[in-house]
Amino acid sequence: MKIAINRLREFVPFDHSAEEIAEMLTASGLEVEGIETFESVKGSLEGIVIGEVISCDSHPNADKLKVCKVDIGQEILPIVCGAPNVAKAQKVAVATVGSTLYTYEGKEFPIKKAKIRGEVSQGMICAEDELGLGESHEGIMVLETDLPNGTPANSYFKIVKSEILEIGLTPNRADAASHFGVARDIKALLKKEVVLPNVDGFKTDNEELVIDVEVQDHKDCPRYAGLTISGVNVGPSPDWLQNYLKAIGLDPINNLVDITNFILHDLGQPLHAFDADKIRGKKLIIKKLPKGSKFITLDEKERELNGEELMICDPEGGLCIAGIFGGVDSGISSETKNLFLESAYFSPDVIRKGAQFHGIKSDASFRFERGTDPNMPVYALKRAAMLIKEIAGGKISSPIVDVYPEPISDVEIPVRYKNVDRLIGKKLERRTILEILKWLEIKTKDENEEGFVATVKPYRVDVTREADIIEEILRIYGFESIPLQEQYQSDFLASHPAKDADKLQFRVSELLSGIGFHEIITNSLTKAKYSEKAQEIQVQNNVVILNKLSEDLGVMRQSLLYTGLESVSYNINRRQRDLRLFEFGTVYRKEGERFLESKRLSFFLTGNRHLENWRSPSEGVVFADLYQVVEGLLVKLNIQEYEVFPVESEEPFVYSLSIRVGAKHAGNIGLLTEKARTLCEVKQEVFFGELDWDLLVDSAMEIRNYQEISKFPEVRRDLSLVLDKSVTFSTLSQLAYKEGGKLLNRIGVFDVYKGDKIGATQKAYALSFFLQDQEKTLTDKVIDKTMNRLMQTFEKEAGAIIRK
Fold this sequence. Notes:
Blueprint: E1 2-4, H1 5-11, H2 18-27, E2 32-39, E3 48-59, E4 62-71, E5 76-81, E6 91-95, E7 100-102, E8 108-110, E9 114-116, E10 119-121, E11 124-125, H3 153-156, E12 161-167, H4 179-190, E13 212-215, E14 223-230, H5 239-247, H6 255-267, E15 271-275, E16 283-287, E17 294-296, E18 302-304, E19 311-314, E20 317-321, E21 325-326, E22 338-345, H7 348-358, H8 363-368, H9 377-392, E23 395-396, E24 401-403, E25 411-416, H10 417-424, H11 430-439, E26 443-445, E27 451-456, H12 466-477, H13 501-514, E28 518-519, E29 525-526, H14 528-533, E30 543-544, E31 555-556, H15 561-572, E32 579-591, E33 594-606, H16 623-636, E34 642-648, E35 653-661, E36 664-672, H17 674-678, E37 686-692, H18 693-699, E38 715-724, H19 729-740, E39 744-753, E40 762-771, H20 780-798, E41 801-803
Parallel strand pairs: 13-16, 28-32
Antiparallel strand pairs: 1-12, 2-12, 3-4, 3-6, 4-5, 6-11, 7-8, 9-10, 14-22, 14-23, 14-24, 15-22, 16-19, 17-18, 19-20, 20-21, 25-27, 26-27, 29-31, 30-31, 32-33, 33-37, 34-35, 35-36, 36-37, 38-40, 38-41, 39-40
């Protein structure tokens, strides 16, 4: 939000610099993110002064040039000028040596002392385009003024220059979404009164154009005010209004629209102007239209209403989505002569829901959905009407209609001094507390030694509790005014040490990128057909989008599988067949009335392991490649308690491993079925894995145990075992570490056999065991004893046959 310092000074007179005001506002909760300078003319005509030509003679060496002497107040300058209209006794704009001209075309032109055809020239008499004031270059500007020579030209041309504060407005401070709102904070900080423009001169000129107003929904429209103005002339706004809008980043449109924008950003009250001649039946009705009704907005888009929007209608149909967007048939145009000006207070809830449903974000809806001041509509209406009469002409042709059956009351909040002292951390003088609240326009009553009752005006939508009152006191008193104590005490609800999920994600991303993976980011919105055709995704768990961009983006994804496969398909179709992809993404599902979301990590492997070359032929990726990646990931996260279990033929996998971390299911990895791949038109094999990232983060161990590398040698022994197919390597690994004790360093598989040389229900593992003692060299006796114990355990616990 942009706020002009010049305009703030008109509300609250102050001499502080923009930097000082920015510092005060930031300290009080309105964070100023930056300060920029607005100039109605680039360079603000710095170094340009008003001069008078006291002589004008022909140049001795050039027919088309004149040698002039120009009085600029304190000195007389010789200036060579080529303009055909320069003459003696003219008042002109003079660019002095050292100044810079910024031309209308955007060029910079520094002024230097020069010799032109042998004659000294110490400045330049300027044309309109050379000053950046217009396009004309027919001759120099001749000024009609009695100002003394040497007067800065920017004062004659009324050049506007102002610092602009860029305020990062937080959602709770809807009251500060205007110059007036910010001025109220400055009022409290500087203890100076705010000066509002006087509207006492407002009066109705006639009653020749009366529009009746009927509010059928007082809940969503507690207050609706308006009036008519006839005989207006639509045209450009005056310079001061255009400069105001440009300074805060808006483009001027025409005088009527510019005035409504001015009131919105000046006072925080949105207005809407209707072409009164387009209001059928001379009546406005504030109500809701049936679901499915069609309405064309100002952007010429036809929108289907959901029946929950508040509409401004005439007896024949809708004219405007209240507080959000006008209709194409009732808006102001260059032919408008008569208008109805609306100023209302709408329920924040109805505006928020309507704006979200239709995907419309306007300056008006931004304020209405956060909460405007219900006491402002009539004042803003008078102020706008008087400006329209001044700028666009016309007459106020109806009394103000103000439908406000149940005025919104102030909020009364009991406050106890002991709670003020406790939460602020310092005992403030009671007089100081009451004075701060007075400057914040928060009245107090029932004051006693224990506390008081604060009365808060309804424009402060964020002040509803005792704690909010205390926060208001503290932010004006100053956080920096609370002294630091020698000792502090903290209470923590979180477990320790705290884990940084972003750092863990970065660490894993580095690991995966380092082994050849590429990260993808896919759309959270996906096709409903995946849940309809994929057995593993339940249709009833879909989170359906109400305001769909398209049918292809109609639901939130329940898995990263199909959005990732779309990326795989896209790359394969462009001859990128060897892919290693991963994604961190959020998945969504609905369970009853609850909406749940969680973060997942997915992997996609397809194609060849590496590019074909003369040293090694191409070789397709296999399941072990994916498992190795996942195992490395678990090691990287220092997750020590995990298990893997084989799963046969469970959608969307031909086969897979289920991974369990602790007692919880962490995900599956495996080979995708043809059915799953076909949904995304992927024809080649794809290995896929999806892990519960939230669970992995919770299970990750930040603290690692390290030990010194042993200086004693490692010994390897191999075993060949024939086992039933149901026995997994994980089972053998657990048995081995249990029996091998501290001597067993690691275990690996270097061969697996299934074939006609053993039973159809059997398989053979060739295992390698690495033994090492941290304190001494292992002897053959100790090694043999350990291996015999392992073989007995495998035979007894796993039913293994040891091949010798």
